[in-house]
Structure prediction request, 1071 residues.
Amino acid sequence: MKKFLLASSMLIASAFGAEAQTINILMESVPDTRYVQEMLPEFKEKTGIDVQLEVVNYAEMHTKLVPQLVAPEGSYDVIIVDFYWVGEFTKAGWLQPLDERIQADEFPVDNYIPSIMDLTGKVDGTTLMLPFYNYAMGLTYRKDLLEDPKHQEAFKAKYGRDLKVPTEWPEYLDQVKYFSEDAGIEGFKGVVNQGQRPDPISMEWSNYLFANGGRYYDPETWQPTLATPEGIAALTQYRDSIQKYGPIGAANFSFDDAFNVAAQGKAYSYLTFNMFRPVYDDPASSQVVGKMEIAPVPGGGMNGSWGWAIPKSSPDPDAAWEFIKFIESPEIAKKRALLGGAATQKQIYEDPELIEKFSYYPQLGELLAYAQNFPVFTYTPEFVDVLGRELSLAVADGKDPKEALEQVDKDFAELLRKDGKLQ
Amino acid sequence: MTEIRLANVTKTYAGGQTAVDAVDLTIHDGEFFVLLGPSGCGKSTTLRMIAGLEPISSGDLFIGERRMNEVDPKDRDLAFVFQNYALFPHLTVKGNLTFGMKLRGVPGPEQERRLAEVTAMLGLAPYLDRKPGQLSGGQRQRVALGRALLRDPVAFLLDEPLSNLDAKLRAQMRTELVKLHRRVARTIIHVTHDQIEAMTMADRICIMQDGKVAQVGAPMEVYRNPANTFVATFTGSPPMNLVPGRLEHGAVQFAGASLPVDVRASGGDVTVGFRPEDLSLVAAPARLPINAEVVAVETLGADAILVASLIGGQEVGMRVPADTALSPGQPIAVHLDPDRLRLFDPGSGKTLPRR
Amino acid sequence: MTAAIAQRDRWFGFAMTLPGLLALLLVVLFPILFTLWTSTSDFTLLKPSNDAFLGLSHYTQAFATPEFRHALSVTLAFVVAVVVLEFLVGFAVALALDKVEHGKAVYYVILLFPLLMNPIVVGLIWKMFLHPTLGIVNYVLSLVGIPPVDWLGVPDNAFWTVVAVDIWHQVSFMIVLLLAGLAALPKEPYEAARLEGAGTIRCFFWITLPLMRPVIVVTLLIRLIFAVKTYDIIYIMTRGGPGQATELVSYYIYRRAFVGLDVSQASAMAVILLLVVLALTAWLHRYMRSLAQ
Prediction:
């Protein structure tokens, strides 16, 4: 990380000296940014354009972006957009349509996985972004225990089905129960959850909702549909996961807290962002090297992704497009994936060289194909806040799941009306 | 009879310095006793040891027949008045005065009676509801005294109680303290660095120097017959003149003069001491004159101090009438009564005993 | 003549302070006035400009919002808890330290250490320490046979845990101020009281406490004003949860503005908070002036 910061600051320094064309990009400090960084010399060689990355924490990004987007000419040529912000940025009309450029250069947009393209690509028929990297959620589980004949036997005896990678949601719930109550492993739990408000709990619970066949709203009318039997079942199961089957404290676990429990080998399963799958195999931060595997969440997991976009305030949109075209070209996308990037294009997950390197790529491809999207509208962040509050009240403070979800529906509907989505 | 007696009392601090060094003192019942000395001489520490505010390192303290070294301060039956009065700033005058009585559980009506008595005595009645911050220095002083009086102790210990007052008020309070002493007829131990206070108020003075007792005696005794050069210069204003001289054949020679003296020592170098009022101007041809030259005349009002330079260059002060018209540089002849001469050993500073 | 000099001095003084005054105007007064304006207008992050005058509607809306009222009540409980507990702990430690004669500097350094730390760091460290299964605190408890405690996952626990972490972080502030107050107390009233027969406890209640009153009041108020603004440790440790147990008002206002995008509404809430803090400050100012007289 230090090296990376040093490199970017040197880059900034060199940018002042050079007369060459330079573009500025605001990015988040995550691994995928590092892989982009490594592609920059090649881009410079090809186009002569210098790229200056400003790397900040997630919490700072929104506050830094907005003033630049509002200005007639901002300081960023290219920006990256979390799916959270898509509604807001679109509503405010801050992004340039990319369709003409795509057509002119015959850029292969069909490579993208459709659900991801829906999330951070096309909005109401117009292409405003190209997907950058995905953070769809998957089920990470203890492969070694799943394959242990002793557990297979005991599980079958008690639950009347085979212990295998779950393809049905109730099957997974049985496994959670088994490893918490029946497996007889000291201090070991069937699941660890991230129950902290607002994003961790909202993102994770979405998997429970989708797995139960529930959905956030009626796609025809935008009418919220959470206080339904599916939603209530999902919240009841989620509450039980935390309060009955999970480790104590999960009701306030952030991503790190929960991941560490799984990585220390204290839980059978954890629903998490797929890009963290490789970390389980890093001995520096894991006690379960080679023992964890990822699978699609039965019923379809929660999708998430970032997209590249050219803001209307971009000082040099042509150079910006050159960069996006380069960094998202199949060749460079593969190079980034080889470094560990969380790809958004289908062919990557079928590439033999990549499957050779990352054995879990076929599962990942499948996971992405079935991933479902969170509601994207102008007030997505505020909706996450409301949802997180009510879920947390139900999980930790004894609020009735039905009541909590009715409250969410009510507030959700109000936000949708404010946004003009719901009449 | 409640006599306060210090036997070989010593105070040594943790750092090793000795503040009070083997002090022997007896303070008689009802006496106005003044501990006098410059700052750092151990007088306050001695007082605080008597009060019990400082532990005694070695030696014994008796009040009456009872040894008091380990007795709690509150049980020594002494009242203490602090230099800055130590009033409780958050309490009214009345609260300050009744603080101790409340602590000791004196019944309410009794409290009121004694409070009325003391406030009348000190003229504090109009200020009972004021806080110390609203009082003048003299009024605060009175409250501090009132608090001490209300204890009705065997002795009052006063630690430089007048030093924070202006000159006029100080003079007034001196008189009041003496009156008060007569009225309550209790022992007072008064610590001060001001020799005028000591001279004007004390029945007896104890002069301390470097933690030791230099001299104990009645004011005039100390003034007339100082035990050493330190006492000689610490008392009187201006202090006693000290000039080097030589003792030979029953006479002391100094500044070109030779005066007969009555000491046991036979000869050698001495320090000659005499008070400014023991010198007088004489017409030139007089018996045993000392020749000098005027340096300056400092008029005090009632009289003046003439600073004169003797043969040999020593400057001495002499008390002269206020209307003395002399100008600097003028030669004068001075007369000194040999009986008033005091001789000191120039090495130890101690007085040479008379025959 | 002297009047002319005084006049000239006044002008010179004014000229010297002018840059400072202008800077203050720019960085303090301008944002406050802008916030006031925004709070009566329709500024959102989607439409970042003040276009319509909406009067006090955002203020009535604020008090009509159950979450805001809830955040105010949690903040009140939090402020009372941290200020009272920090005062009791701080005063006890200050009294003990006041008697220390050797190595005071060492104690000072140890005590000031938490105060020098960024609240973000404090939150992260304690979150790590208090991790229910992997943290050191529960591990140490397990050594003496105490079952693991769910520090942050249960609403009541979470509230008191956050209070405790805040105390750990901020109590030195109280200690240092109170210790300075104790060190400045005159010695003689204690000696006078001792001669009158007052013991340690009497001395404390009859002398120390009354004499320390101005220092105590100022310390409590300063701490109170800062406690009202607590934000960082909540952001790091609980995000207002679990449920709404640690929903402090500063964090709530931040979310109204940057998550809810409703800057005008958040401004109105911020102004309400500002008025509360201002009232406390004004009272403090008046109290200090009355002491000076």
In short: Helices of chain B lie at 43-51, 93-103, 108-122, 137-151, 167-184, 195-201, 219-224, 229-234. Chain B is about 25% helix and 35% strand. Chain B touches chain C at residues 51-53, 72-75, 78-80, 82, 84-91, 99-100, 103-104, 147, 151 (CB under 8 Å).
